[in-house]
Every structure is written in structure tokens, then in C-alpha cells.
From TrEMBL:
Signal peptide: none
Example GO molecular function: metal ion binding
Compositionally biased residues, Basic and acidic residues: 24-34
Residue numbers spanned by region Disordered: 1-38
UniProt record similarity statement: Belongs to the sulfatase family.
InterPro entries linked to this entry: Alkaline_phosphatase_core_sf, Sulfatase, Sulfatase_CS, Sulfatase_N
PROSITE patterns cross-referenced by the UniProt entry: SULFATASE_1
Protein's name in the database: Arylsulfatase
Keyword terms: Calcium, Hydrolase, Metal-binding
Pfam families found in the cross-reference section: Sulfatase (PF00884)
PANTHER family for this protein: ARYLSULFATASE FAMILY MEMBER (PTHR42693), BLL2667 PROTEIN (PTHR42693:SF43)
Domain Sulfatase N-terminal, residue spans: 49-464
Organism of provenance: Brachybacterium saurashtrense
Length: 773
């Protein structure tokens, strides 16, 4: 009878797993000792698959061809044909929350991400600082012998922690991923993105006229996967691939935009009908499904002028081009896996949308700048949009389509992104492929599934348990359940039988086929408004039997009041258990200073040196709605100098102090509109030698966005002055940063181009924030 009490190795329930050291007899000499053995390091279980997890951005259930939509996505179609389609897959209905739930397997409030990073508040479910008790799939797989990489969008780092100075514990590398190449914020300019490799900022677009982020992400992922298999072919990889497409801006290469010219001239109302009929033909939705009517608040296609119909059709062409182009890049990654002979044993999970398509368009005719319209109250004029129709999808617009197109992309459901109470916001499509394991190719699965189910599915596929502890920290139980039982059994019973939904107080609860939910009080494109004291009781509640009403179209609350109350109480119980409370229907209002962490509070003096760049707005000098002074201590060499001294933001909003042809210049952009561009410039270039260049901005005071006067002086001598009639009232940028000695991203005005590095010597740059004049 064996008396060996050595614990089984590896113990995958407690991470990290120490190497196994078998040490025999050790004497004073090598000759008298047992032959040594190398420590055995942990490896993934035998046969564990590679995993490619893909998720696009702002893509509704009815957008892509495999689910009845108008946008060709050949890679998505190919994987659907060789795998399974899921027509009842659900997200949280908003970006950061879905992404936190996806990588942790916990409900978004459990992962402290009840709202996007930028609007976090100090409550436990909303502060956006993911607890170490919610270990990520990257962390678990890395410590179980996988190679792990993250490519693309993050949006899970609190915005005040996204600076080059860190701390980096909530960046992908701090969450257990060995490699990261992508961007941290809500979106990225596809031609000039703020990209990081690991924790280092990089500018991959420099000297590349054809640069596009989606192609770059595919290149990086392919290189990384090939490197993994070249070095250690037996080690499985986990690649988390999250392009920012098709979130605003809808950027696509020109040749891809041309592919879709004229394909959406019929308009969004007709497209919604066509998609619905096609979904029935494909069997994606039941034959008795109902197409939800478009709410009265939404603009109708026939209400547009002929010129604006052309503009709005072009917007949809750009969206389709962007999504189709992104899918093509995913296809390149899949092809690379196949070329390595790894496709058979690669689990590919392709989620089409972290939420439904975005209806965050207040006018009904789309917009040309996200930050300008949604944050800074810029009003897009039809004249400007018509005149610049050929710029849509390109470098100089942050174009977004009409809320009418969003609703068409979410066919056949009600509502859109942010409206977590309704399927138009939360239900997106998904495809799973694993040739070695899934044999019902082309099959459809209709069990209720949720984004929290992805982690348990990957763990079961890999033969890895959910750990009890990571680094000694006890782990919160997973909220999701594995989808693997459905791989072989299309009629297998649901395992995820209860799921709450909540974003911005849009509330919903699914339980065993029933759905109770609130009616939205704030339209998807409304960022501010009157808040509600008690959204649970003051919002109107609806009830749906989804077992007979696939599209959530028949409110039966009046027929089943007892059931509705039972469901409401179930929601409340889930809300208490998952850190959802307190319910809060504020959105942009959460940006108020009292809701933000106390960084830079009271700080008015900032000192910088060359090479200090990519400082995000939360940590940069706050030069909005105040007076300020920028002082540059510089030296001009013989022959003159030019270049950037300081820049914050870019083309869609920002300010910059620089020398152009040696002449001191201050440029200000209230937005991308021509009338919002201001330039104050000295008449003469700076002479060689050391100088103290000062920009004084005297704000008029009053309402946010009021104007002011900019004055340039050199060595205490005024050299230029000019009016800036309007300033940025709320936010400079969602993605561009504060840079010293160079400009990253887009230029504030087009008389220079990035990086426009200063060719003289900049000793020091100081920003002093001053009271209004």
C-alpha cells in the first residue's frame, strides 16, 4: 500500500503553479549524489486547443450576412458554415461592461464595470477598478501554460490610469496577458490611432500613407501566433482579438468604401424590412417572429431631402466597408492559423458586437465628429455634410451613421446600444468553430447564452478548472456557464437560466424564458437629462414571454401582473447580489468633478520636458473654461527651427503651440469645422539663441465654451495677439493626448503634419492654469 502523500501536480486550482522539483539524494560531491532533474514547469493539459477569441464593436444582430443582414463578412460566414451559429447570444449592451464580463466570466457589476471607464463613479459596481478577486481568462491561461496575446481595443483601464507613467496593473499586461498591441480607450482614429505595444506608446502610422489599424492588428496577431508556434509548437496560444470596428469613427480604406457605393440608396426603413425577411428565410429567427416597429422618436428615411439621403447612404456605405474590411483582416488571422496546420484544434469564438449598433446620433442624419457633437454641442449642418460627402470614411471626419441605420442593423429587435432592457441593445450574434470537436457544422443553437459564458467555455475546452485562488487571493465564483454542452446537442437544456441586465438604469431580467424590463426614459442619443430618484419604481415595466415571442414584441404585463412582480423582485435580488445598486440613470452627468477620482485636484502648475507625450486628458492640464499660460524655454539653432512645443488633442478639438518656418504660432480648434479653427502667429521668425516663449490665454469667463484672447510674447515682448471666439466646453478628445515636443495623432490645423517634432532644443515647458480674467 502506497504511503506517498505528495499532492498531485499540477494543482490548477491555486495559481501560480510552482514548478515540480524532484530532488534525489544530495551529498557533498556530485559523484555521490543522485543525478539531478530539471524542475518541471507547468504546461497546458494534453490536447488543449488554441483559442482565438474575436469580438467586434457596435455591431447589431441584423448587420451581417450570416444573420440576414446586408454586410458581407466572408470570414464570419466561413466559420459559421464549419461551426455553430448562436442566435440568442447576449451582451451587457455597452462597451466596457461587456468587455469586463467577457474576460472575467463575471457579471459586469461584479467586475466593478457597470458603466464605461470614462463615466465611472465610486460605487462598488461602477468604479471600474477590477478586483484581483476577478481573475481574467488571460491570467488563468498564462499560468496554465498558454501563450497569451491581446490585439486591439481594451477600454478596461480607468481613464486616469492610461498614461505612460502607469500604474499598469489594470493594463492587459497587468491582467495576465503576456503581449498587448492595441489601444486603451473607447475608440481609435483608424488612420492615426493612439496605439501601445505592451505599455509603450508607438506611432505605427508614421511614413505609411496606406496605414489602417485593422490591417496592422492582423499583421501583429499573425506575427505573434507564428512566433508562438515556431518557438514552441506544442504550446497552445490564446489570442484575444478585438478590433475597434465598427465603433465610430467608421473609417475604411478608400477602395473598400467604393465597393459599397450605391448599395444603401433604398434607406434604413426598407433595409430593416429586407433584413427581417432574410432572417426568416435563413431560419435565423422563427417563422412566427414579429418585426418590432421603429419608435416614433426615430427619423424616417423619406423625411430626408434628396441630398441628405445621399449623405446618409454614404454613411452606411462607410459602416459596411469598415466592418467588412475588419472581417477580412480576421480572415487573414484565421488563414495564418490554418497555414500552420493548427486550425483543426483551434477553438474560434467570434462575437459580432459588444452590444447592438449605436444610435448615439441626436439629429437623425448622423454626424461628422463624435467628440464635437456628443460632448461639445457642435451642430452639424446639412450644408457641411453635403459639401464634404467624399470625406466620409476618411482621415478628416469622425463619421457616424444615423440612428435609423443603427435600428436597421439591430433588426428585428427594439432599441439599440445602451438600452440594456431590450434585445436591440443586448442581443448580438456569435459563431463558434472548432473542427476537431464540433461536428454539427452549420448548426444553429438557440439556448440563452451570455458574454459571461465565454470564460467557462474556454476553461472546459482546455481542461482547466476555474482556480480557487490566484496569488493567494480567493476568487469570486463565475457567473457564466459553459456553452460546450450545446456543441453536440442542439436541443440540450439551457444552463444559463437567469440573467439580469442593467446599464444607465435600463433594467431587465431574464428567467426561464420570461423577460421583464423597463421602458427607456432617455433615448439612446440623449447624453444628459433629468435624473430619476428611484428608477426601479419610477420606470415603466414590461413583460415578455420569449418562448413564444422571439423578438420581444408583445408586452403581456397587463395579462400577468403577478408574474411581472415576481420578475421585478428577482431583478432586485440579482441587483443586490451583483453590486448593481444604487440604480443611476445619469450618463454624461457622471463626468461632474465630484464623481471623478481626486487626481490633479488643486494642481495648477505643470512642468514637462521633451519626450513626455501621450498624456491622457484625465491627467493633463485642464485648460478648458479657464485662463492659462504656456511657457517654453527653448533654443533656436543657427539656420532656424520649427516644430511642436506642446499640443493637446488634434483636428477635432485641441490647441497647439509651435514654430512654423520659425514663427511662433498658437493654433486652436473648437472642432473640425473651418469656422472653429483659429491661428495666432508672429510676423517674424525667432532669431537663433535662447528664448522664453509665452502663450497667455485669457478666458472671457461665463458659460463653458466661452471665448478668450490668445497673446504670444517672446522674452517679455508681445509679438502677436488674437481672438478665439469659442472654446471647447466639455472634452478635448476621446483618443488624442497631451504631447510635448511633438504631436501624435492628427494635427490641430492642416498647415503642419504629425509628428512635427521640434528641431531646436526645448529645455522645459510649463503650463500654469489660471483663474478667468
Amino acid at each position: 500500500m502506497s504511503t506517498d502523500r505528495t499532492p498531485a501536480w499540477p494543482d490548477r486550482t491555486n495559481l501560480p503553479i510552482p514548478p515540480l522539483l524532484r530532488q534525489g539524494r544530495v551529498e557533498r560531491t556530485v559523484r555521490d549524489s543522485d543525478p539531478p532533474q530539471w524542475p518541471q514547469e507547468v504546461a497546458a493539459p494534453a490536447g488543449a486547443p488554441n483559442v482565438l477569441l474575436v469580438m467586434t464593436d457596435d455591431v447589431g444582430f441584423g448587420a451581417t450576412e450570416p444573420f440576414g443582414g446586408p454586410i458581407p463578412t466572408p470570414t464570419y460566414s466561413r466559420l459559421a458554415e464549419q461551426g455553430l451559429k448562436y442566435n440568442r447570444f447576449h451582451t451587457t449592451a455597452l462597451c466596457s461592461p461587456t468587455r469586463a464580463a467577457l474576460i472575467t466570466g463575471r457579471n459586469h457589476h461584479v467586475a466593478s464595470t457597470g458603466i464605461i471607464m470614462e463615466f465611472s463613479t465610486p460605487f462598488a459596481g461602477y468604479h471600474s477598478i477590477v478586483s484581483r478577486s476577478c481573475g481574467t481568462i488571460g491570467e488563468i491561461l498564462t499560468r496554465n501554460g498558454y501563450g497569451t496575446g491581446w490585439f486591439g481595443k481594451n477600454h478596461n483601464v480607468p481613464d486616469w490610469l492610461t498614461t505612460p507613467a502607469g500604474p499598469f496593473d489594470l493594463w492587459p499586461s497587468g491582467l495576465g496577458f503576456e503581449y498587448f498591441y492595441g489601444f486603451l480607450g473607447a475608440d481609435a482614429h483608424q488612420f492615426r490611432p493612439a496605439v501601445h505595444e505592451g505599455t509603450q506608446p508607438v506611432e505605427p502610422y508614421l511614413d505609411d500613407e496606406d496605414y489602417h489599424l485593422d490591417a496592422d492588428l492582423a499583421d501583429r496577431a499573425i506575427t505573434w501566433i507564428r512566433r508562438q508556434k515556431a518557438v514552441n509548437p506544442d504550446k497552445p496560444f490564446f489570442a484575444y482579438y478585438t478590433p475597434g470596428t465598427a465603433h465610430v469613427p467608421h473609417h475604411a480604406p478608400a477602395e473598400w468604401r467604393e465597393k459599397f457605393r450605391g448599395q444603401f440608396d433604398h434607406g434604413w426603413d426598407e433595409q430593416r424590412r429586407r433584413t427581417f425577411e432574410r432572417q426568416k428565410e435563413l431560419g435565423i429567427i422563427p417563422e412566427d417572429s414579429v418585426l418590432n416597429p421603429t419608435p416614433d422618436h426615430y427619423r424616417r428615411w423619406d423625411d430626408l431631402s434628396e441630398d441628405m439621403q445621399r449623405v446618409c447612404a454614404r454613411q452606411m456605405e462607410c459602416y459596411a466597408a469598415a466592418l467588412s474590411h475588419a472581417d477580412h483582416q480576421v480572415g487573414r488571422v484565421v488563414d495564418a492559423v490554418e497555414q500552420l496546420g493548427e486550425l483543426e484544434n483551434t477553438l474560434i469564438i467570434y462575437i459580432q458586437g459588444d452590444n447592438g449598433s449605436s444610435a448615439e446620433d441626436p439629429t437623425g442624419h448622423g454626424f461628422t465628429s463624435e467628440i464635437g457633437v456628443l460632448a461639445n454641442d457642435v451642430v452639424d449642418t446639412e450644408e457641411y455634410m453635403i459639401e464634404n460627402i467624399d470625406e466620409f470614411g476618411g482621415m478628416w471626419l469622425q463619421n457616424h451613421f444615423s440612428h435609423g441605420w443603427a435600428h436597421a442593423m439591430n433588426s428585428p429587435y427594439q432599441w439599440d446600444k445602451k438600452i440594456a432592457s431590450h434585445l436591440g441593445g443586448s442581443r448580438t450574434s456569435a459563431v463558434v468553430s472548432w473542427p476537431a470537436r464540433i461536428h454539427d457544422t452549420g448548426g444553429l443553437r438557440s439556448q440563452f447564452t451570455h458574454v459571461t459564458d465565454i470564460v467557462p467555455t474556454i476553461l472546459e475546452a482546455a481542461g482547466i478548472p476555474m482556480p480557487d485562488t490566484i496569488d493567494g487571493i480567493e476568487q469570486v465564483p463565475l457567473n457564466g456557464t459553459s456553452m460546450m454542452p450545446f456543441f453536440d446537442a442542439p436541443d440540450a437544456p439551457e444552463s444559463h437560466t437567469t440573467q439580469y441586465f442593467e446599464v444607465i438604469a435600463n433594467q431587465g431580467i431574464y428567467h426561464e424564458g420570461w423577460m421583464a424590463n423597463t421602458a427607456p426614459k432617455r433615448l439612446p442619443w440623449v447624453g444628459t437629462g433629468e435624473s430619476t430618484a428611484d428608477p426601479f419604481d419610477e420606470y415603466e415595466w414590461e413583460l415578455y414571454d420569449l418562448t413564444t415571442d422571439f423578438t420581444q414584441s408583445r408586452d403581456v404585463a397587463a395579462e400577468h401582473p403577478e408574474k411581472l412582480e415576481e420578475m421585478r423582485q428577482l431583478f432586485l435580488a440579482e441587483a443586490r447580489a451583483n453590486q448593481v445598486l444604487p440604480l443611476d440613470d445619469r450618463y454624461i452627468e457622471r463626468l461632474a468633478p465630484e464623481n471623478r477620482p481626486p487626481h490633479n485636484v488643486g494642481r495648477t502648475h505643470y512642468v514637462y520636458y521633451p519626450g513626455v507625450s501621450r498624456i491622457t486628458e484625465a491627467m493633463a492640464p485642464q485648460m478648458k473654461n479657464t485662463s492659462y499660460r504656456i511657457t517654453a524655454d527653448l533654443t533656436v539653432p543657427e539656420g532656424g527651427a520649427e516644430g511642436m512645443l506642446m499640443c493637446q488633442g488634434g483636428w477635432f478639438g485641441g490647441n497647439a503651440l509651435y514654430l512654423l518656418d520659425g514663427r511662433p504660432t498658437f493654433a486652436y480648434a473648437r472642432s473640425h469645422y473651418p469656422e472653429h479653427k483659429y491661428v495666432v502667429r508672429a510676423e517674424e521668425p525667432l532669431a537663433p539663441g535662447r528664448h522664453r516663449l509665452v502663450l497667455d490665454f485669457a478666458w472671457d469667463g461665463g458659460a463653458p465654451g466661452a471665448g478668450g484672447t490668445a497673446t504670444l510674447s517672446v522674452d517679455d515682448r508681445e509679438i502677436a495677439s488674437g481672438r478665439i471666439d469659442e472654446t471647447i466646453p466639455v472634452r478635448v478628445s476621446a483618443d488624442e493626448t497631451f504631447d510635448v515636443g511633438e504631436d501624435t495623432g492628427t494635427p490641430v490645423v492642416r498647415e503642419y503634419d504629425v509628428p512635427f517634432r521640434f528641431t531646436g532644443a526645448l529645455s522645459e515647458l510649463v503650463v500654469d492654469v489660471l483663474p478667468a480674467s
